[in-house]
Design a protein that fits this description.
single chain, 331 residues, alpha/beta, Metallo-beta-lactamase, Chain A, 2 domains, seven-stranded mixed sheet, five-stranded mixed sheet, 11 helices, binds zinc ion
């Protein structure tokens, strides 16, 4: 646990085979917890232990310490699984935006968010038979993964639903909740202009690009979101959901944009070079990742599919179905 801004504490919860999660405590007389982390026993125990340390340090300084609520940034299981346990253990009200509440309501709603359309599935896997097996394995794997590794638990009744665009008072100070889709559609962020502090969730990370892939991510939304973040008045500090805090937010966001433009140019170049015959997603992958390991290719494929959708939406490229294969051409 450490204080990352006066009276804002970061508890870093280690993940099982997963990156660690940042949970933030906005301490004071009417405080809030931002994000709930993993839901497995060891992580939760660790969280409570660290939380008590903050409480006792406040008490030692004779400052009032009362956390009243918990809110989560988005419906990914590494961020909301601890919700039920933490709220019960500390007697907190669960506050969610409508879209997050819908996503984590129950098994059916949660699983729906991971289902791609046929087009995305087709682009992701080479042939229909492999596609079916792959989807099945992916489905089972995802469930096991979320349950055992993240300690997944759903929530059907939050105590309070707030608007996607609203202002909440935390320790008598106004914090703006605003939608920040891109990484996932229901994602929200939290900003206090006077402090210049932004809780960015999974949208902006310091050391690596955040995961962006179908079906939940959308590049048009993502670019809009990070541009919006970059233009927040007085932005000084980004507190992300994973990794280190970001003291140079504008430069960090500019670097993310640059990286995205480079990767988009790679996809576009591949299509340009084959502009007459057309190029399939697999050929694009072969061009961009000629000798990479399978895992990198899977992540790379998610990125390529998302980029193809983006370029198609913008009218820069078009697709044609040639002998049951989707090929891309310049528009
Ligand atoms: Zn996420």
């Amino acid at each position: 646990m450490r204080e990352v801004y006066p009276e804002i504490f970061l508890i870093e919860e280690k993940g099982r085979f997963r990156p660690s999660d940042n949970i933030y405590i906005l301490a004071g007389n009417d405080g809030i917890i931002f994000d709930a982390g993993y839901g497995y026993q060891k992580a939760l125990k660790f969280f409570l232990k660290e939380f008590k340390k903050i409480e006792s340090s406040f008490k030692k300084q004779r400052k009032e310490f009362k956390i009243t609520r918990i809110i989560v940034s988005h419906g990914h299981s590494d961020h909301f699984s601890g919700l039920n346990f933490v709220s019960k253990a500390l007697g907190l009200k669960i506050v969610l935006t409508e879209n997050v509440a819908k996503t984590i309501k129950d098994k059916v709603s949660f699983e729906t968010t991971f289902r791609g359309d046929d087009y995305e599935d087709y682009l992701r896997v080479r042939n229909e038979f492999i596609q079916k097996i792959w989807n099945g394995l992916r489905h089972i794997g995802t469930l096991l993964f979320f349950r055992s590794i993240h300690g997944l638990s759903y929530l059907d009744q939050p105590d309070e639903i707030v608007d996607n665009n609203s202002v909440i008072l935390i320790n008598s100070e106004p914090w703006k909740i605003f939608p920040s889709p891109g990484h996932s559609p229901e994602h929200i962020s939290l900003y206090n202009e006077e402090k210049g502090v932004l809780f960015s969730g999974d949208n902006v990370l310091k050391m690596r690009s955040t995961w962006l892939g179908p079906p939940e991510s959308n590049l048009t939304d993502y670019i809009e979101t990070i541009k919006k973040m970059q233009s927040l008045p007085n932005l000084k500090l980004i507190l992300p959901a994973h990794g280190e805090t970001i003291e140079n937010p504008k430069e960090t966001i500019a670097a993310i944009m640059e990286r995205m433009n480079e990767r988009q140019a790679q996809v576009l170049d591949a299509i340009k070079n084959y502009s007459e015959k057309g190029v399939s997603p697999d050929q694009i992958l072969d061009i961009i990742y000629p000798k990479t390991r399978r895992f990198t290719r899977i992540i790379g494929r998610d990125w390529v599919v998302l980029t193809l959708k983006f370029l198609e939406e913008k009218g820069i490229i078009r697709r044609e179905i040639v002998k049951k294969k989707i090929l891309f051409f310049l528009a």
